[in-house]
Amino acid sequence: MSAATILLIIMWVFAAVFFVVLVKDVVAHKDELDKSKMGYNVIVSMIANFFDTLGIGSYAIATSAWKFNKAVDDDLIPGTLNVAFGIPICVEATIFIQRIDMDPLTLVLMIAASIVGSVIGARIISRLDIMKIRVVMGVALILVAAITLCKINEVGPFGILGTARGLTGGLLAVGVIANFILGILMTAGIGLYAPCMAIVLLLGMSADVAFPVMMGSCAYLCPACGITFIKEGKYNRASTIPMIISGAIGVLIAGFIVTSLPLTVLTYLVCVVMVICAVMFFHDAKKRG
């Protein structure tokens, strides 16, 4: 049995446990569910996870959509992102971990580091008040917009072409530490994909290696930190399970039907929307909740 297969088996066992915890929490609070924005959130999840599979990322798209329509309360956005998108990302990881050859040790260590980071991050983020959440989300969107612009213009590490399929020695340590930090930031709504790709390229690995690393990391860390958000009640209970279903459908459509799309213009548009939403978060933060 290959390392990739073992990783996927463990991942889905963990995802199953996560889903049971989620269902129990939703059922326990069934009389408190606000379903007014459920239809909108289901569509957002499908679209966001569709583009996530293509490498654009889902967090910024979903955050912007929720912010514009006020479909998810600001203080619930980080938790909703990690809880609702956890299983769709597992579907992504299943597709890409099997497709792309990578050094097993590098993959396992970087994924493990992101899990530890996410658990620590969730304990911090889930206890922040709404004003701090708004500030964190505003900063997150600005950072992701800047990194995404670097990505599509091949600025900095995005312009480096490597060939390595894994890391050793000091470079492996750097990769592990970096993914640990990204795991923490992931719980604040800062998507892991773009910065992870930058790290992979900067360390001299092939660009395609970024896909199993970033998708595998998120597939493990989202359920890991998601359980913390569930226990804290810091996520949108009413829409989460329907969003999981629609998000998984979006992933499958992108993964098996779509082969190529003209994404550059769309990515620029997403960056503009992210900046606008960041300004909105900072403006709302001044109201102190």
TrEMBL record:
State the UniProt keywords alphabetically: Membrane, Transmembrane, Transmembrane helix
Please indicate if the UniProt record lists Transmembrane as a keyword: yes
Keyword Transmembrane present in the record's keywords: the answer is yes
Q: Where are the transmembrane segments?
A: 6-27, 39-61, 76-97, 104-125, 131-150, 171-203, 209-229, 241-259, 265-283
Record's protein name = UPF0721 transmembrane protein
**Native organism:** Claveliimonas bilis
